[in-house]
Amino acid sequence: MTESRSAADAGAVTVPLQLTTTQNAAYTSSDLPDLSPCNWATVYGPEGHTVDCSVGSGGEIWSPDGKTSYGTGPYSPTLEFDPNVKHGLARFRITAKDSTFAAAEKLLAVTVFAQDRQDPSNQAPAGSATFQEFYDGGDTHFVGYNYTSGAPNDGVTPCSVYMQVDPEVDGKDRITYVLVTVDGHATIKNADPQYPQWRKVPLSSDGCATVDILDKTVEVVNVTLGLPQSPDSDSIGPFQTGFTVFSKT
């Protein structure tokens, strides 16, 4: 039997707003147009309520599909019922440009706010999303990489890995994908359902790639990146990213 729910019914129950953000996304850069590093913010609260979300200096809010910028806010989504947490959820992206911070090699922390429009006293504790430069790939073909951590264990919000690869071998572009593997209970978005913990992630025309890792378990998982098509089968890792509990309510 399908349960019918309304915003009015949801508003009858007070649910404290909660906010979680992933950490350590790379800065966006006009030099890498095919990469859009971001931290994900996830808001949990009363189903059907509108939440006004904003970010502090250096940050920029984007819609979940990454197509619409809301600047520093407000971005005002409606919390939609999520069966995993039994209340309302909304998600959005947060980015930061490398030019917004004088010493981009250092960590930039962007403050994140969320307030219930129907009940202004219902505010989530302020969150913080951090940004940094790409890590040096350290070999011939891995130019750089970056990864986020701290996604909630909802099976939808990802920890993401961003990669820059030099695909050229003997004067020709011979490297076409990055082989990504994970362990634990984590799965890779868009992987073959029979092999959910590994995926050949295709490179874009500029040698970049992005992969999203999902989990429904609170745990730390190992991630490995490989280039089987490179002469030395270059690889990075394993490195660790983690998933956190979202709500104890």
What topology emerges from the helices and strands here?
Blueprint: H1 7-11, E1 18-21, E2 25-26, E3 39-45, E4 51-55, E5 60-62, E6 80-82, E7 87-95, E8 108-116, E9 127-132, E10 135-136, E11 142-147, E12 151-152, E13 159-165, E14 168-169, E15 172-173, E16 177-182, E17 187-188, E18 198-202, E19 208-214, E20 219-226, E21 235-244
Parallel strand pairs: 2-9, 12-21
Antiparallel strand pairs: 1-3, 3-7, 4-8, 5-7, 6-7, 8-9, 10-11, 11-13, 13-19, 14-15, 16-18, 16-20, 17-19, 20-21
Written overview of the protein:
The protein is globular and about 65 Å long. The chain is an all-beta fold. The longest helix is centred in the first third of the chain and has 5 residues. The N terminus is likely disordered. It is built from one helix and 21 strands. Helix content is 2%, strand content 43%. The strands form five sheets. Strands 1, 3, 5, 6 and 7 form a five-stranded antiparallel beta sheet that branches. Strands 10-11-13-19-17 form a five-stranded antiparallel beta sheet, with no helix packed on it. The protein folds into two domains: 118 residues, Immunoglobulins (Immunoglobulin-like); 115 residues, Immunoglobulin-like (Sandwich).
